[in-house]
Structure formats: structure tokens, C-alpha cells
Design a protein that fits this description.
The structure holds 2 protein chains of 2 kinds. In chain A, strand 1 and strand 2 form a beta hairpin. Chain A contains 5 helices and 5 strands. Chain A is α+β, with helices and mostly antiparallel strands. Chain A starts with a strand and ends with a helix. Chain A folds into 2 domains: about 70 residues, Ubiquitin-like (UB roll); about 70 residues, [2Fe-2S]-binding domain (DNA polymerase, domain 1, Orthogonal Bundle). In chain A, helix 2 packs across helix 5. Chain A is globular. In chain B, strand 16, helix 12 and strand 17 form a beta-alpha-beta unit. In chain B, about 30% of the residues lie in helices and about 20% in strands. Chain B folds into 3 domains: about 180 residues, Aldehyde oxidase/xanthine dehydrogenase, molybdopterin binding domain (Aldehyde Oxidoreductase, domain 4, 2-Layer Sandwich); about 150 residues, Aldehyde Oxidoreductase, domain 4 (2-Layer Sandwich), CATH 3.30.365; about 325 residues, Aldehyde oxidase/xanthine dehydrogenase, molybdopterin binding domain (Aldehyde Oxidoreductase, domain 4, 2-Layer Sandwich), CATH 3.30.365.10. Chain B is an alpha+beta fold. The N terminus of chain B is likely disordered. Chain B contains 20 helices and 27 strands. The relative contact order of chain B is 0.12. In chain B, strands 10-11-8-18-15-16-17 form a 7-stranded mixed β-sheet. Chain B has a 5-stranded mixed β-sheet with strand order 13-21-20-19-14, sandwiched between helices. In chain B, strands 1-2-3-4 form a 4-stranded mixed β-sheet, with helices on one face. Chain B is globular. The chains are: A alpha+beta, B alpha+beta. At the A-B interface, helix 1, helix 2, helix 3, helix 4 and helix 5 of A face helix 7, helix 9 and helix 19 of B.
């Protein structure tokens, strides 16, 4: 048994230690907001936070995150929607939406590191997240809007 | 098949010249008896709950809730929002007062939106002959009952139909309330899910459902004047946005079922070919693995978790039957290049004036263009959930063609089409990928060997790439001549695998007609060139291809608009002004003028900057784009794109902008960075690092304007794609003097 802390809750899973966190979340814990896109850290759809940092959960061995704080989109905000989520709604970013959870998780992480990012900052940090529908421009706009909401803090 | 003989006569009328979103319904061979007139069937009536009522195939009201049917499939383009909202517009529902369900397979949901494409007349043609042909095509579609999402037909199909469905429901509810209260229906009104009596008393629709079932639907209704619209044409929040932002949205890949097992596959990379033998001993010893099953073109691993299944599938040693198309890419191009011959001529689509004579007059230009195979690869991989019992199969899968899912699954397991119950899912993209059946057939085969146990199948990204039935491979050979500052002749010859014809064959609806998709972008060219010829050739024996966002026009638009640019340059004219001057259709001229104003076009820019323009009509929607680039030390930087598109009516303005921006990103990204190449019978690109398309750092600012001058409502999912590549190539030429005639462009120039 491996013990995980997901969104503040203790969970136990009985899987091989090498299993990527992504598949533990999706198939064992039924947290399907983390998406499988490529399996090799090329698309970012599986992005979650481990101990406050954005990671590609398809590349993280479950044994390596035992006891660490794992946060998925469901856990990024205490009560209401996170400002990033609010901005995503206001600017109607998603089309199919499959990549967007990963995009938002990456954006949350970006805004922690750079509260007031430039377009260049956004392009650099967000280019690891693929969007096949092509919503990149809306993502840029939404990240700026979220930064404003958060007061550049 | 009772009506087939009847239909085949019309096929002669439409089939050969059909310009259908590929839908040349030529030799239609549906595997079920021809349905009765679609409008008379209501699939919702079959499984109606107690005291519930359905007025038509799009509205169901029970004592508890209101259900609106999204007729088309939602692959991200917004069907699941705008279609129910168009019903709600007339039914006087607020956006939180109904549930949305996707349509099951039924001829009642036949796609009227294909009528324009079926009739062999160009989009702007409103002549009586054109309108008569479209009306006849509509009748044909009504009888055929074909339900399919594609060809940017979502809005054209449902713009009137959904509103009418809502209006009929509303008036019937009023009639029901009138019967109950004795007050004349004309004195009743409706608002927010209630019928409202003259004294202000509200009767909720749900409270009328049982009675309404006994009232004959009121069909003599008038649609509201647009001035009364609450939703349509106004900025609105898509119904699916919130669940897609909170993570609650369940896509097909997210569906689970009690007692299900997980399946992963390893399939023959030589597309369409069987497996010869395999050794699964290693896989069977791996954690979580329950079984290894043989299926027609590979193996499937059954496990307790998708990852266990994928890992084990990789470790199975398989012996594959070899490919029946050339093993290596160079030979694919060789076949394409050598098939511009009478033997492979599919059709000469236009022959105006005397092209041969005009080519000898003036300055001759010749150019060859190429568009490679490319993959669809929506971010949600192919997947599905299936359960086979002795009675039939139930399948949950996101798909654009519900009736075909039934047919393909049934055929794979020796059942009848009607034994397959299909449930559509929200899709994480498609771009044409989910018009094909690799996952459907495989899932049916696997679930059939696991009778009684639900099976969830997920393709690994690598399998998905390898089994992706790609965009057509295409080559264009163009000749033209200019004289006295004018283009006097152009001869467009395109040789390409036939995407829609091949799809039809896989749907068991084979046709011998030329693939009308290969005419799009060479036939519907609106420039005043006195001597103009266009022909398509269909080479044989190549890798399979299918519809890829914008289909024929994705290659042909690039070829034609690049060559027109070359001719304009040779004639020493301005690329935008020359197009405006040559354009024969007033509303299209307006479009070019509009995009020019948006970009403040003033001719060449200098300082390493360049602008290119392109204009293509596909699926009836004309789109003009201008791309601006800068040549930097690190390569070409795409700075900005301006787009003007005329759809007659912009129904959902925010989503419209999003779709256009996405189409431009799709068109640019693949033109810059993507190709699929064959080696040893399989494709060499097996994940996104080999086939990146566009990432954010390359994405320009994209400014969009929707025009409403067209005489009918048009779609926007695909039409922004074709002009993007030629506008970029033309911009690169303007900035650098270098003509790029082959995609992907990054083989010839670096991008920042």
C-alpha cells in the first residue's frame, strides 16, 4: 500500500511503485480531471501540483510522491473558483476543453512564480502545454486577467 | 433497400458533381432498410418515461425535467451549447432550466446541412436551377436519413430546425394549458419554463407534460423575429465552459462502469493489415494483467488499470503482415507524381475559355506544390467503453457518425446494426479523427471476447499516431500565363488520395464517383481568369487517408492561392488589390476589402517584414486572411493574422471568434511543422514531439471579424483553415523572396 495525500485527503493505493501518478489518479482514485494526452511530458494535459509545484503526473512515479501534498484542479481553491478559473470562464477559453485543466494548473504555477507575467513569460512557461483546438491567444489573455484579479501578488 | 432504385436516379444528378462536405452519396449502400420519411419518426418516443411528452426529436419534457437534444456530436466546436440554446430561444427557457443529451442514432436526425454541398452549384449561386437542385438534394437527404457531424454543417443544419423544434414545443404547451384552463391559447404567453395565464398564474412546463402528451403538436408556428432573440447573435457563455474549467466534465475517456476492465492494444502499424502470430509470455507475467486477446489486426491486453494494460501491450512480440502500400515515403511521392495521367484522371471540374492557347500567349509560369500526409491527433486519444452480451452491444464513444458506429461494431462481431446501442460522448477534439473507426472496431472485437464484462479501451498516444488515418497526400501541378499586367490563364491539376471516397468505402457506402473534396479549392475559384481549367487525379495503392479539418481545401487552397500569388507577382500587381479586382462575387470582394482595412494593407513593408493574403471558400464559407511575418536572425516570426469570414449570421459571437482563431492555429501549425512519413510500412511520427503543430510561443495575435452579407447561414469550424497556409507562404515570400511550395515549411525555412 502506498499512502497519498490528494487535495488534503489521505488515500491508499495498491499499485506497483513505478506506476505514474497520472494513472493512479485516473484509474485508482477516479480523479479524471488529470488527463492522459501523450504519456511522455509532451502535452501537459496531466499537470498537477506536488508540494506546490506543477509537475507532469505522467512522469512522476507514485512511490516518489508518497506522503507529499498532491493537488489537482479540485483542490486549487478553498471555496469559490480560483482566479485563474474565473478568468478562463470570463474569456471563454475552452473549446473541447481536454487540455484546459492542465493549462490552468500550469498557469496557477506560473502566477505563483511570476505574479505579473509578460507575454514572453507566458509563452515560455506555457509552451509545454499543447492545445490542439488552438486556444493559445485566449489563454494568454486569461492569464493576464487572472494576474490582475490576483493583484499581481 | 426499397428506395434504392429511386435514389440511384438522383445519384446521377448529384453524385458525379457532388460537392458535398465530401458527401458524394453516389452508390449509397446503407446496410439497413431505407427508413421511412425521417421527419415522421421521433426516436425519443420509443423510450419515453411515464407522464412524459416529446414533441419532436429534440425536446422531451417529463414531470421532473426538460431535456433538449444536441443533434450533432460535440468535439469542442460548441454543439452541446448552441444547439440546445437555439431550442431554448423559442421555447422560452433560461439556460439553467434544461439538461442536454446527445442524439442517438436515428434517421430523424438527418443532416440537412449537406444539401448545399450536394448540389453541383457554387456556394454563391442563387439561380433557380441551383435552388432547385438544393431542394432536391434535401429531399434525397430526408429519405437517406444520414446523420453525421462534418462539413462545417452544424449551424447550417440546425439554425432553423432547432428554433422550429422549440417553437412547436412552446405552442403545444400553450395549447395544453389552454385545454386545461379553458383560456384561449392566444391569451397565454410563455417565459422561463412556464406558461403564464392572463392573471399572472404560472404553470411550469413540467406540470403540463402528462396532458401535453394527449395534445396534437401545433406545427403551424412562425419563428420569432431576430429582434426578440435573447441568446442568438449575442455574446454568451457556452453551457459547457464551467464544467470544463472545474474538471467536472466527463469526456469519453473518463467514463467508468461497475465491474469494468481496462484494455490497451498493439496494432499492426502496416495500416489495415492483420497480425500473423504473437508471443505474450512476457506480458502475461506483468502486474495487473488478466488476459491477452488476439484481434484481427493485433492484440489487446486486459488489465486492472490502463497503464498496466499499455505497458503489457508494448511487451507483446507480434509478427505483422506487411503493408499493401509502399513501405517507404519516397515511393508514395513517386506514385503521386506519376499519376497525372488520363488513367488516374478523376474529373475535369472546369474548362473555361481556351487554356492551351492562352498558355502559349503571354509569359508562362509553372509550379509544383506538395502537401504531405498529416495526423489529426486530438488530445483525447481514441477510446471507448463497450459491453457485449448475447443480445447485443452497448457502446459509449465520442463519434461524428452514430449510424456508422452501429454498423461497424455490429459487423465486427457478427450482429445486426440495430443490436448496437450507441451513446455519444463529449470529445476531446476530433478534427475528422472520430469519423474513422479504428477504436470502434477494436473495442467491439475485444468486448465480444469479454462478453458480459464492460471493457474500457484507451489507445496509447503511440498507437493513436500509428493508426491515425491521415489527411490526403497531395501534389499540385499548375501552369498559368500573364500578359499586359493581367492573368490570362491558369491550369490547376491536383493529384491526391481521395479522403472522403475512402471514408465512404470504410462506412460500407462505396462510390465510384470522383471525390468531390478534391475539387474544393480548384473548382470554386472566383477570380476572373478568362481561361481556367481544373482537374483532379486519384492515384491508387497508397496509404489510407480521410477527412482532416477542411478536407480537400487544406491542400488545394494552399496550392491555388500560392499559385495565384505567383501569377500576381509575375503580373507586377499588388497581391490584395489584384485579388479584389479579379474577384467576381461582390460579397467576397467585400471580404477581401474588409481584411485589407483590418490590416491597414499598404503594399510591401520592407525591414524584413512581409505580408501575405489568401482567400478560399470551402463548405460554402468564404474566408480571407492576411498574415504578417518578420524575418529575424533566428528565423521567421509569425507576428499577426487578420481574418474576415462571411457566415451570413454569426450565431454565437464569442465561440465564433474562438473557432476562427483555432482554425488559423490549426492551418498555420501543421503547415509549418507537421508531416507523417512512412518507413517500413508504418509512420515514423509516434508522439507530439515528432508532430508538434503549433505551441504557444509560435502563436500570433489573431484578429477576427465576422461578416453577415451571405444570403444563408454558414459554418465556421473548417473554413478558416485553408487560407492560413498560403497566406503564410505568401508572407514569407514577401519578406524574403523565397517561395515555399511544400508543406511543412520548416523543411525549407526556420521559424522562431
Amino acid at each position: 500500500m502506498i499512502e497519498l495525500i490528494v487535495n488534503g485527503l489521505k488515500r491508499q493505493v495498491d499499485v506497483v511503485p513505478d506506476m505514474p501518478l497520472l494513472w493512479v489518479l485516473r484509474d485508482e482514485l477516479d480523479i479524471t480531471s488529470a488527463k492522459y494526452g501523450c504519456g511522455i511530458a509532451q502535452c501537459g494535459a496531466c499537470t498537477v501540483e506536488v508540494a506546490g509545484a506543477a509537475v507532469r503526473s505522467c512522469q512522476v512515479r507514485v512511490a516518489d510522491v508518497a506522503g507529499k501534498r498532491i493537488t489537482t484542479i479540485e483542490g486549487i481553491s478553498e471555496d469559490a473558483l480560483h482566479p485563474v478559473q474565473q478568468a478562463w470562464i470570463e474569456h471563454q477559453v475552452p473549446q473541447c476543453g481536454y487540455c484546459q485543466i492542465g493549462q490552468m494548473m500550469q498557469a496557477v504555477s506560473l502566477l505563483k512564480a511570476i505574479p505579473k507575467p509578460t507575454d514572453d513569460d507566458i509563452n515560455k512557461v506555457m509552451s509545454g502545454n499543447l492545445c490542439r483546438c488552438g486556444t493559445y491567444e485566449r489563454i494568454r489573455v486569461a492569464i493576464h486577467a487572472a494576474a490582475d484579479k490576483m493583484g499581481g501578488q | 433497400m426499397g428506395q434504392m432504385s429511386d435514389l440511384s436516379r438522383r445519384e446521377i444528378l448529384f453524385g458525379s458533381a457532388a460537392m458535398a462536405g465530401g458527401v458524394a452519396f453516389g452508390s449509397y449502400a446503407w446496410a439497413q432498410p431505407a427508413p421511412p420519411v425521417a421527419a415522421d419518426i421521433n426516436p425519443l418516443a420509443k423510450e419515453l418515461a411515464r407522464n412524459a411528452v416529446t414533441f419532436n426529436p429534440w425536446v422531451e419534457i417529463t414531470p421532473e425535467k426538460i431535456i433538449l437534444i444536441a443533434q450533432h456530436a460535440d468535439k469542442g466546436q460548441g454543439v452541446g451549447s448552441i444547439q440546445p440554446l437555439m431550442i431554448a430561444e423559442e421555447l422560452d427557457l433560461e439556460r439553467d432550466q434544461f439538461e442536454v443529451r446527445f442524439a442517438g442514432p436515428s434517421p430523424a436526425y438527418f443532416n440537412t446541412g449537406f444539401a448545399h454541398e450536394l448540389a453541383p452549384f457554387m456556394a454563391p449561386d442563387q439561380s433557380p436551377a441551383a435552388e432547385k437542385a438544393r431542394a432536391a438534394a434535401l429531399q434525397w437527404l430526408r429519405k437517406a436519413g444520414l446523420q453525421m457531424t462534418g462539413g462545417s454543417s452544424t449551424i447550417p443544419d440546425t439554425y432553423d430546425k432547432m428554433r422550429m423544434a422549440g417553437a412547436i414545443a412552446r405552442e403545444t404547451l400553450k395549447a395544453t394549458a389552454a385545454k386545461r384552463t379553458g383560456i384561449a391559447a392566444s391569451k397565454l404567453r410563455t417565459e422561463a419554463g412556464n406558461v403564464i395565464l392572463p392573471d399572472g398564474t404560472k404553470i411550469p412546463y413540467v406540470a403540463l407534460s402528462a396532458d401535453a402528451a394527449t395534445v396534437k403538436p401545433v406545427t403551424n408556428v412562425k419563428l420569432r423575429d431576430p429582434s426578440q432573440w435573447r441568446f442568438i447573435g449575442k455574446p454568451m457563455e457556452r453551457l459547457d465552459i464551467r464544467s470544463k474549467v472545474t474538471g467536472e466534465m466527463k469526456f469519453g475517456i473518463d467514463r467508468k462502469m461497475e465491474g469494468m476492465v481496462y484494455a490497451a492494444v498493439k496494432l499492426n502499424p502496416n495500416k489495415g493489415q492483420p497480425i500473423r502470430s504473437y508471443d505474450a509470455s512476457k506480458a502475461l507475467a506483468m502486474p495487473g494483467v488478466q488476459k491477452v486477446l488476439k484481434i484481427s489486426n493485433g492484440i489487446a491486453v486486459i488489465a486492472t488499470n490502463s497503464w498496466y494494460a499499455m505497458q503489457a501491450a508494448q511487451s507483446v512480440d507480434c509478427m505483422w503482415a506487411p503493408s499493401i502500400y509502399p513501405a517507404d515515403q519516397a515511393d508514395h511521392w513517386k506514385i503521386v507524381g506519376s499519376s497525372f495521367t488520363p488513367e488516374f484522371l478523376a474529373k475535369q471540374w472546369r474548362n473555361d475559355g481556351d487554356v492551351d492557347a492562352a498558355l502559349k500567349d503571354g509569359t508562362l509560369l509553372e509550379a509544383e506544390y506538395r502537401a504531405p500526409y498529416v495526423a489529426h491527433q486530438p488530445l483525447e486519444p481514441l477510446s471507448g467503453l463497450g459491453l457485449v452480451t448475447d443480445k447485443g452491444m452497448e457502446i459509449w464513444v465520442g463519434h461524428q457518425s452514430p449510424q456508422s458506429v452501429q454498423h461497424i461494431a455490429a459487423k465486427a462481431i457478427g450482429m445486426k446494426d440495430e443490436q448496437v446501442t450507441f451513446h455519444n460522448e463529449w470529445m476531446g477534439g476530433s478534427f475528422g479523427h472520430r469519423l474513422e473507426f479504428e477504436n470502434v472496431r477494436v473495442l467491439a472485437e475485444v468486448a465480444n471476447q469479454m462478453r458480459g464484462t464492460p471493457v474500457k479501451l484507451v489507445f496509447s498516444r503511440e498507437e493513436d499516431f500509428q493508426q491515425d488515418i491521415s489527411r490526403q497526400i497531395a501534389m499540385g501541378r499548375y501552369r498559368g500565363s500573364v500578359k499586359d499586367g493581367k492573368i490570362i490563364a491558369a491550369d490547376a491539376q491536383v493529384c491526391a488520395t481521395a479522403p472522403f471516397k475512402e471514408l465512404q468505402a470504410r462506412m460500407d457506402m462505396p462510390t465510384k464517383d470522383p471525390d468531390a473534396q478534391l475539387a474544393v479549392g480548384i473548382w470554386n475559384v472566383y477570380y476572373d481568369i478568362p481561361n481556367y481549367r481544373a482537374a483532379s487525379f486519384e492515384p491508387q495503392g497508397l496509404a489510407p487517408s480521410t477527412t482532416w479539418r477542411s478536407v480537400g481545401a487544406s491542400a488545394n487552397g494552399f496550392f491555388t492561392e500560392s499559385f495565384i500569388d505567383e501569377l500576381i507577382h509575375a503580373a507586377k500587381l499588388d497581391p490584395l488589390q489584384a485579388r479584389i479586382d479579379m474577384c467576381k462575387i461582390p460579397i467576397y470582394r467585400k471580404l477581401l476589402e474588409t481584411v485589407g482595412k483590418m490590416a491597414d494593407w499598404k503594399g510591401s513593408l520592407g525591414n524584413g517584414k512581409g505580408r501575405g493574403v489568401a482567400f478560399v471558400e470551402c463548405f460554402g464559407t468564404a474566408v480571407a486572411e492576411i498574415v504578417e511575418v518578420t524575418m529575424t536572425d533566428a528565423g521567421i516570426k509569425v507576428d499577426k493574422v487578420w481574418v474576415a469570414a462571411d457566415v451570413g449570421k454569426v450565431v454565437d459571437p464569442i465561440n465564433f471568434e474562438n473557432q476562427v482563431q483555432g482554425g488559423v492555429v490549426w492551418g498555420l501549425g501543421h503547415a509549418m511543422n507537421c508531416e507523417l512519413t512512412y518507413a517500413g510500412g508504418g509512420v515514423q511520427q509516434t508522439n507530439y514531439h515528432h508532430h508538434e503543430a503549433m505551441r504557444m510561443y509560435q502563436c500570433p495575435v489573431i484578429e477576427v471579424r465576422g461578416l453577415e452579407n451571405d444570403y444563408t447561414v454558414r459554418g465556421i469550424g473548417e473554413p478558416p483553415v485553408p487560407p492560413a497556409a498560403p497566406a503564410l507562404a505568401n508572407a514569407i515570400f514577401a519578406a524574403t523572396g523565397k517561395r515555399i511550395r511544400e508543406m511543412p515549411f520548416n523543411k525549407f525555412i526556420d521559424f522562431v
